[in-house]
Amino acid sequence: MENKFTKNGLRIFAAAFAQSLSASLAEVSGIKLPLEIIDKETIPTNDSKPIQFKLTVEGALRGDCFVEFYEPQVAALLSTIMRQPVTALGNDHLSLFTKLVATTAEGLCKSSFAGDGALKAGIERVSGLAFEGLSVVPLAAADPQAELHVLLFFSPQLLESVSSVLGKVAEQNVEGADAPSYNLRLVMDVELNVSLRFGQRRMPLSDLLELSSGSIVELDRTVDEPVELYLDGKLIARGEAVVVDGNYGLRVTEIPQPLTSQFLN
User: Fold this and answer.
1) Given this model, what pLDDT does residue 47 score?
2) Which helix or strand (DSSP H or E) is residue 135 part of?
């Protein structure tokens, strides 16, 4: 059963894997293809033949993570990498892609997510597996024009391991003790999406349908009230909107709660 520590741990692991996979793709193809975690409810239906790998981790975390890609998307990636059309995947193509996934696993172990050599990983290609009942975290290309979907399925052993590690971190924070540097390193290298909210408003559907270019939507916040910074739907800071080199930014003036408690709860 997933608890809050397990869910956070799965997202940490998935985000670190996504970052390592993006780095591997950039290294071999020169293409930047950031990946992000998407909601389970938005997993697209895919009838294509899957390409599956078993990622086995050992060390501070233990267990198997099954990684599922899909043939047409892998073929498109290999076409870019090899700079020639790939219409059908042969053994050579699959061997090349397996090396790419293995490089991703190596990058995962070398990142600060894994601590100082505290994590080792092995990759093998598998096939014909069904993952009903396993916890899943879906990844997708951040660019909607780039079609790439990856599913990460977590074995019960890895679920328990992830939950245990983050549970210890949470317990130490509650008791006011400093978490060991290794546990902190689990999250230091993971990139997270944050959003800035100037305000919000509830509108009837009829008003939404009447919106057009030039329409003005009045928000529930006055201009002198602070804007809010959100992480995964949770308020983590308030401040003043600023402009930095032509981009919007936030000058933080208030942090309602310690960020560690915001993240772990």
Assistant:
1) 82
2) strand 135-141
